């Protein structure tokens, strides 16, 4: 069985999705609500899949000082979000654990190595929480690919990754620096792994990515297709839609 580690930050204004208030009509508080919604959809996709869910969060000690208020409690904030989303049965199975390491590469590498080498997990997948159109069926499809390949990667925009699955460890030192996709792939090839890939998806961290997401969600909803429940509900609550400005360029507006 695959352990699906969803890597999250405590949902705090300015810490999560920091570019959106400058690039979209969203305030910092609304950007935080969007992050919470996307995390919620990622948690559901993982919890409802055939894998085991691990919520892997950054502690206050790992966060920039300006995002650690006096009463900060990263674990409590993350746990509250998880408990709001999952039902009692799912909560009985989920694990919530702090990340270990001084960089993204170190934290992800330590999680993967610990699960594979110490806990003898059959396979481990690391999932970023800002790809809300990744559904349960996609998580299960990725797990099936891991039965045939030692490494499975989900390419994101700008050479990044939204998903990285492994049946055996690779060298993660600096691997998630730009371009993470090429770096992790090279480490997997160096380790003798057969590498497979998922469909490319955009991580929603910029105004352009949010415009793409909003338009897709509205189209999918109008066609009666599957949508991520929490993210779609927030988009509708905020009245977000894509329109053309006076030059015909796409812009995100609120109704």
From TrEMBL:
Annotated SUPFAM superfamilies: Nucleotide-diphospho-sugar transferases
A Pfam match: DUF2064
PANTHER family: GLYCOSYLTRANSFERASE, SLL1095 PROTEIN
Protein name (record): DUF2064 domain-containing protein
Organism of provenance: Halobacterium jilantaiense
